[in-house]
Amino acid sequence: MIANTAFTLNQTWQRFSVTNTAAASATGIRCFLYNPSSTSIAYHYWGAQLEQASSPSSYIPTTAASVTVASPNWGGCSVWVSPDNATYAQAGKMYGPSRMGVLTALLSSSADPDTTHTLSVDVAKSTGILNGGTASDADNFRTLCYVDGELISFQTASLTSAFHYNLATRLRRGVFGSPVNTHAAGAAFLRLDDGVFVWEADPTLVGTTIYFKFTSFNKFGLMEQSLASATAYSFAFNGSFGNIGDPPANNATVDSIFVSGSDDSIRVYGPGGVGTSYTTWKKDQTTRTIPAQTITMVEETGASPQTTTVYWVSYDFNSGTHRAWRNYNNYVQAVGRGQMRISATITVNSSNTGGSTGGQGDSGDGGSGDIGRILPAI
Q1: pLDDT tens digits, residue range 80-124?
Q2: Domain, as residue range, for 269
Q3: How many domains does the chain have?
């Protein structure tokens, strides 16, 4: 199959496209340039791109591997939700693509604000365009992004190549209490704006696995994909179980044990003894089983708990870990972000004596409520 198309060249870079339907037996494609003129002309031929589409997208640089990009004809999708992957209800519609991609370089953990590191991203898969702003835009989270579980806003966006950006100058890290971490190249990136679908979930779904399907339609809102042919995506809906407005009861025990020097460890466990899980309740009588844990690091210092010191303990549902806080205000903020309050405790001394026992403990019949325990105050 031969596609013969004539182009007129000038002395600037130009982009030309040829569309052709290949035979089913075709195994390759070759491109030739032919000059019908008898005049000798030198030309540069660069950046060939092959796409399975009716029209070309913007230029996407590739090396050895293929790149998947958003179809220029994709108009959006309907969003469907199911509790059992059998019966689906429509949750809404999304129009146009989100600006999403991956990191192209490691982003190290840093204090906030981060004026040292650069967030390097590739948004070719969505053919996204990122625009920078001012320091005020970064500080007011107008450029907010999701980066592998951490929320980050940025000040400047520098285009380094097609759909590749360096986001830098001023990064606001750990926005809205999200965990600040080191993120590897290839980690997920998403610009949080009107191009992101937002769904308010029924709280009774917390603790279950739910399923999503997305049925695509074209840019005219037509030719929508059938629900039966759409891929189902499962999601373990953990949610936030405890917060300031609904303080939970628990039958946990929180105590400490001497390690060495001035270092202690804080232990959180259930009625069965060290290493056993415990139960926590909300006022609607819903429950969660939380595994035991030995805490060896204090959030503010990154070091071990110290002897004869007061600490407040919370449980972070996002990471599935207990956290020890030296500063009460930091503890309150953590609970306000959705962590569950457990207790306060005073650690033992270097003789492994003294200290206090926190957590509400076992009432003796499987509930909570040991007399004399330090309550999880707010």
Answers
A1: 999 999 999 999 999 988 999 999 999 999 888 899 999 999 998
A2: 249-346
A3: 2
